[in-house]
Amino acid sequence: MYQISKNHIAVPPGETIKEQLEIWEITKAEFLSRMGMTEDEIEALLEGDMALTPDIASRLESALSIDKGFWLGLEGLYREDLKKVEEENARMKKRTRS
Q: Which residues, 6+ apart, have CB-to-CB distance to 78 below 8 Å?
């Protein structure tokens, strides 16, 4: 799920995963099988609620033929952007209380 502040947006790697599944017409069942993960785990990954670890990046590389480094890079950018969104929203909330 996207996280938004006034000046930032954080897009989880799951959005790119969803796009790839659609492009390659990979069903949810097939993706679950390729990833060796539960449906709940995949949902959390797609929504950005589960960190994309090196192990998951390796699984994605095998499942989607996209380099592990690409996935880890996306995860790093997402976490950086998420921190910016959270910090900005906290500052805005603090200002409105003052």
A: 10, 11, 12, 13, 48, 52
